[in-house]
Structures are given as structure tokens and as C-alpha cells.
Design a protein that fits this description.
- It is a single chain.
- By secondary structure, the protein is an alpha/beta fold.
- Helices cover 60% and strands 6% of the residues.
- Strands 4-3-5-7-6 form a 5-stranded mixed beta sheet, sandwiched between helices. The chain has a two-stranded antiparallel ribbon with strand order 1-2.
- Strand 3 (472-474), helix 21 (482-485) and strand 4 (492-494) form a beta-alpha-beta unit.
- Helix 9 runs parallel beside helix 19 (407-431), helix 13 (213-234) packs across helix 17 and helix 17 (347-365) packs antiparallel against helix 18 (375-394).
- It is globular.
């Protein structure tokens, strides 16, 4: 009896189970939120911040010249289903087809207004946020803290934010660049066929986005043997085998289900997928076959000529641009490169270090330079910054007075300072100085005053019986991105006229004296607006019409 009484006494001490604790586990969104780890909460916060920075006031700045040209291609595709790749002057087709998907979906709700400035820039916004997500996918390679740092630096990077809000190819290009590496790393680790297929699709989309894929691939091909040689030279064992960048060549690869893939089959399937994506996009889905595919090769003849003539700068220009807008990443990235090469323990880190140095050298040596190309240098720099701070975060606490400031706190402080500086510069650039040519990323951008011209034209058209069928003659040879903003005006024409009859004239400042002398009796000046530095447009209205 004594043991029983003891058991009874023990039972009395046990807390009673409440009805709430006996309830079924919370499911749905609430249950999912409860199951999130602190790292996942931090990642979600970074992604949310990245989305907010890229979406707020997305139409605030007028389109750049290049955005206007891209918008014109998209308008033709959206309205007429027509697109042809031009190898002589323009980049690949992927941007237009992804934007076509978004604008078409948008048109289900807004009709013709689905083709809007917000919709086309939403394309690059989604890829910009996707790039931040891909950096979080490097958690195993960079470490938990390092992946969060890299993602946060990309989320607030002035350049990454600026060009995510820009309807040009570059943010898609860096997304697919990182997409190839993430997919290869996953395939290397898990040997699952789907990852190799994702790598093949990403590589094809990289090539169908911009011709500079040859630079990236060439740098990678040089970085791979450099990585192998450096680690061998350092005689350090790779303690992070999953971070290796070489592909496995197993005899068989197990797939989900009963199907078993042999090594040659999955690589053949990946090659076929690569070719299928390449041919479909460059041939405009076989409406321009085989010419479009041939042009994807012919383009390099034009490209090499362009790289030696236009937008020519010295070898240090990219470093100057990055130092002005991305100094924290430049510094921390350099530290990460030194640590990666000194330790030589992670093939991925060493590979990315050589990628960073190689891509900087390649783009610096090419005389053709534009600020958006700096994103290709910035991407591996951000990864190296995350790697370097992860190594600092993981250092064992020091002894003595150094223990007063643990390395983890120092790493967190450096990451916070770098992200804070980036956030300040991103807000300043994207919401206040987006047309200030003293900023590195603002490159001959359309002035905000230009939207006043567009608003004047819309106001005049709204007050006339013809509405948007009103005739507009744009005489100015410098007019991009005006065609995008006049896309709904059916009777807008471009060029000079000996005897214009259109109600509205848009004239370049160099043409004003000639227009006044010849047509002053017929037209009156309404207003003038800055297009770009050194280019001002004048708006004239026929005298028989009221403004």
C-alpha cells in the first residue's frame, strides 16, 4: 500500500491538463504562423521589406528612354501578338514575354488599362523580390546568419531596388544568374532531376534575357578551375562538400515515384529543355523560325562593335559607381573574398570569390559601361558580404577584454549598419533623387518635369470632342519615352512636316525658332518641359482650339 500512496501523492503534484491543451492543434494560416522559426520570421520580414521598397509609388518616376523602347515592343506584342528579336540593338525576348503574362492577367480586371506603367514595372519588381528569396535559399552555403545578411543587403541595395523598379532586362538577368547556381547546388546536394531541369531552364532564360550571358558563363568557366587549383594549393580539406559547384555524374538518379532516371537520360533531358526554351523564345514561338534563332548567334557581331564605341568609360568606372551607392557591400564583400580565399574550406565561397573578382575585371575591361550592368558585380559581392559576416558571427568568443564585445554582436552590428546605410540611400535615390544625374544609377534619366508634358496633352485631349483620337505631331527627334505615354493616341505621328495640320505639336528646343517663323501664325506655345539634361520639349496648340 505504501508504494500506491506514494504514487498518489506524486499524481497530486502533476498539473492538471486544461481543456485548451487538450484541444486539436491549430491549423490553417494561424497554425502555419505558429510553426515558423525565428529564422523564417526574419526571412519573411526581409522579403516583405523588399516588396514594399519596390512596390510603393512604382509609377513615381517617368520611364527612362530604354524603358520606353521596351514598352513599345511590349505594346506591339500585347495588342497584336507580334514580336521579333532584333539582334542589332536590343536585348533578348524573355522580358517581353514575362511582361506579356502580367499585363494580360492585369487586363482581365482593367481592360485596355491592363497595359500600364505599374503593370510592366511589376514584372521587374517580382524578379527583384525573387532575387532576395534566392539568396535566402543559400542558407546551407552561407549559414543562417549569412543568408539573412545577404538577403537583407539585396533587399535594401539602392541599385537592386532602383532597377527592380525599372522596365529593363538587368534584374531578370541577375535573377536567372543566381537561379542557375542555386539549382546546381541543390542538384549537387540532392541529386534530384528536377533541380537539374531548373538549372537548365534558368540557363536558357539567362541566355534569352541578355547577350552578356557570355561574360557571366566565361567568368564561371574560369572560376571553376581556379577554385580547384586554389583549394589544392592551400591544401585545406573542403568541410562543406554540399557547397561544391561541380556536377555529379551518377549511374542512376532516383525520381519521386517508381521512375528511375539513368545519368545520361537526365542530362539529355536537361539539354533538350535548354534548347526548347531557347528556340521557343528567340523564334517568337515559331513565328520567326529559324531566323530568330540564327539572330541569337548573329547578335554578337553587332554586340562586339557596340562594346567598343558607345558609353565608353575607363576601367575604374564601375568601382566609382559602386563606391558612391554601394560602399557597405563593396567593403564587406572585399572582406568576405579575403576570408574565403584565406580559409579555402568552402568550394562555394572560393568559387564566388573568384566569380566576384572575375566579373569585376571582365566588365571593367570592356569599355562599354552602363550603371545597370554594375548589378552583375554587385550580386556576388552581396553573397561574399553575407559569407564574411557569417564567419565573424561564428567565431568563438575571445578571452579577456575582447570577450566584452562577442563576435556575434559585432557581426550583427556591422550587418545592421550596412543595411541601414543601404536603406537610407535606397529611399533617397528611389523616392527623391530618381532623376538627379549626380547619383550613380541615374543615367540620362527622364526628368520628372516630363510628366507635366504628358498631363498637358491628356488635359487638352480631354477637352476636345476627338478625345484621344486627336492628332499629335511629334517633330522632336528626341522623344523617348513619349511613345509609351501616347500609346492610346491612335493619331500620334512622328517626324517633320512642311505644313502640319495636327492640333498638337511637340517640338525640340532646337526646332523652336524654325517653328515660330514658319507656323507661328497657326500655332501658339502652351508650355515647355525638360525631357533629359540638354533636351527640352515645347508643346504647341493650334490657335483655333482652346487649351
Amino acid at each position: 500500500m505504501k508504494p500506491a500512496s506514494r504514487e498518489k501523492r506524486i499524481d497530486k503534484k502533476r498539473p492538471r491538463t486544461s481543456r485548451a491543451s487538450q484541444a486539436q492543434p491549430v491549423t490553417g494560416v494561424a497554425g502555419l504562423l505558429r510553426r515558423l522559426s525565428p529564422w523564417q520570421w526574419a526571412a519573411a520580414g526581409i522579403l516583405t521589406g523588399a516588396a514594399v521598397l519596390r512596390l510603393v509609388e512604382l509609377t513615381l518616376k517617368p520611364l527612362h528612354h530604354d524603358e520606353g523602347v521596351n514598352g513599345s515592343f511590349l505594346t506591339t506584342l500585347f495588342r497584336g501578338g507580334y514580336y521579333r528579336y532584333d539582334p542589332s540593338n536590343y536585348h533578348g525576348p524573355s522580358l517581353y514575354y514575362f511582361a506579356w503574362i502580367i499585363t494580360t492577367f492585369n487586363s482581365l480586371f482593367y481592360g485596355k488599362q491592363g497595359l500600364s506603367t505599374f503593370a510592366i514595372r511589376l514584372t521587374t519588381v517580382l524578379f527583384g523580390v525573387g532575387l532576395v528569396w534566392l539568396l535566402l535559399c543559400l542558407r546551407r552555403e552561407l549559414g543562417s546568419f549569412g543568408a539573412l545578411v545577404a538577403a537583407a543587403l539585396a533587399a535594401v541595395s539602392p541599385g537592386m531596388v532602383f532597377f527592380s523598379r525599372y522596365f529593363i532586362h538587368e534584374i531578370l538577368f541577375v535573377f536567372f544568374t543566381l537561379g542557375v547556381l542555386v539549382a546546381v547546388l541543390r542538384f549537387r546536394r540532392a541529386s534530384q532531376p528536377r533541380y537539374l531541369m531548373l538549372a537548365a531552364a534558368s540557363a536558357a532564360l539567362l541566355g534569352t534575357t541578355k547577350e552578356t550571358w557570355v561574360i557571366t558563363v566565361a567568368v564561371w568557366m574560369i572560376a571553376l578551375p581556379c577554385t580547384w587549383a586554389w583549394i589544392r594549393l592551400r591544401r585545406e580539406k573542403d568541410v562543406s562538400g554540399a557547397s561544391s559547384v561541380h556536377l555529379p555524374v551518377p549511374d542512376v538518379l532516383a525520381n519521386s515515384g517508381t521512375r528511375v532516371w539513368r545519368g545520361w537520360e537526365i542530362y539529355a533531358a536537361a539539354a533538350l529543355l535548354f534548347l526548347a526554351v531557347w528556340v521557343l523564345l528567340y523564334s517568337s514561338f515559331f513565328t520567326n523560325f529559324p531566323q530568330g534563332v540564327l539572330d541569337s548567334v548573329r547578335t554578337f557581331g553587332y554586340w562586339f562593335k557596340t562594346s567598343k564605341s558607345d558609353h565608353s568609360y575607363g576601367v575604374t568606372k564601375y568601382l566609382e559607381w559602386l563606391w558612391q551607392q554601394e560602399a557597405p557591400v563593396l567593403i564587406l564583400g572585399a572582406v568576405g573574398i579575403v576570408i574565403a580565399l584565406w580559409r579555402a574550406r568552402s568550394r562555394f565561397a572560393v568559387f564566388t570569390a573568384f566569380w566576384s573578382l572575375g566579373i569585376l575585371a571582365a566588365y571593367s575591361l570592356v569599355s562599354y559601361k552602363t550603371p545597370w550592368c554594375a548589378l552583375n558585380i554587385l550580386l556576388p559581392g552581396i553573397i561574399m558580404a553575407g559569407y564574411g559576416l557569417e564567419r565573424l558571427y561564428q567565431l568563438r568568443p575571445a578571452h579577456g577584454w575582447k570577450a566584452l564585445v562577442p563576435h556575434s554582436r559585432g557581426a550583427i552590428a556591422l550587418a545592421a549598419i550596412a543595411a541601414g546605410v543601404g536603406l537610407y540611400q535606397a529611399i533617397d535615390l528611389n523616392f527623391y533623387r530618381y532623376d538627379d544625374d549626380t547619383r550613380a544609377y541615374v543615367y540620362a534619366h527622364t526628368q520628372r518635369d516630363f510628366l507635366g508634358l504628358v498631363n498637358e496633352i491628356d488635359s487638352i485631349a480631354a477637352g476636345q470632342p476627338a478625345g484621344k483620337d486627336i492628332g499629335i505631331l511629334v517633330m522632336s527627334p528626341e522623344h523617348w519615352p513619349l511613345p509609351w505615354y501616347l500609346r492610346d493616341y491612335k493619331n500620334a505621328v512622328w517626324g517633320k512636316s512642311a505644313d502640319p495640320t495636327e492640333p498638337i505639336l511637340v517640338v525640340h528646343e532646337s526646332q523652336v525658332l524654325d517653328v515660330e517663323s514658319k507656323f507661328g501664325a497657326k500655332y501658339r506655345l502652351i508650355s515647355s518641359h525638360d525631357l533629359r539634361p540638354g533636351n527640352r520639349l515645347y508643346l504647341y496648340l493650334r490657335r483655333d482650339l482652346q487649351p
